[in-house]
Amino acid sequence: MSKAKTPRALSDKEAKAQARNLRTSGQKLNLVAQSIRGLKVDKALAQLQFSPKRIAIDVRKCLQSAIANAENNHGLDIDALVVAQAYVGKGLVMKRMNTRARGRGARIEKPFSHITIVVRETEGAA
């Protein structure tokens, strides 16, 4: 016999998407995530479209995935979706060496990070 099914972590009015191993530091990624928290999804997409940050392209893909999950998997109304949560996690760090003068070496760290976006359907549909 199989194990009992794990209950869904999110409510029925929520959907989420994750983008993992994005090649940027968590601090830089969090600046972009902060700019979309609490916004309606159409305004959040516009914000990411015109953001000067390089990583905003990948965050926009993740947000579009969360919207598609909400529509296709959970049957939510796209026009009533709001970015409920956007949080950043730390990924692996690649360590590299850079040669310096007098036979020394300097360490270069190339961090990766993850982003999770949760969208929620609001009651007052616009």
UniProtKB/TrEMBL annotation:
Transmembrane segments: none annotated. It comes from the Bacteria. The keyword Acetylation does not apply. One of its GO terms (cellular component) is cytosolic large ribosomal subunit. PROSITE patterns: RIBOSOMAL_L22. InterPro entries: Ribosomal_uL22, Ribosomal_uL22_bac/chlpt-type, Ribosomal_uL22_bac/org-type, Ribosomal_uL22_CS, Ribosomal_uL22_sf. GO terms for biological process: translation. Residues 1-20 are annotated as: Disordered. It holds the Pfam family Ribosomal_L22. Keywords: Ribonucleoprotein, Ribosomal protein, RNA-binding, rRNA-binding. This protein binds specifically to 23S rRNA; its binding is stimulated by other ribosomal proteins, e.g., L4, L17, and L20. It is important during the early stages of 50S assembly. It makes multiple contacts with different domains of the 23S rRNA in the assembled 50S subunit and ribosome. The globular domain of the protein is located near the polypeptide exit tunnel on the outside of the subunit, while an extended beta-hairpin is found that lines the wall of the exit tunnel in the center of the 70S ribosome. Part of the 50S ribosomal subunit. Belongs to the universal ribosomal protein uL22 family. This is Large ribosomal subunit protein uL22. It comes from Candidatus Phycosocius bacilliformis.
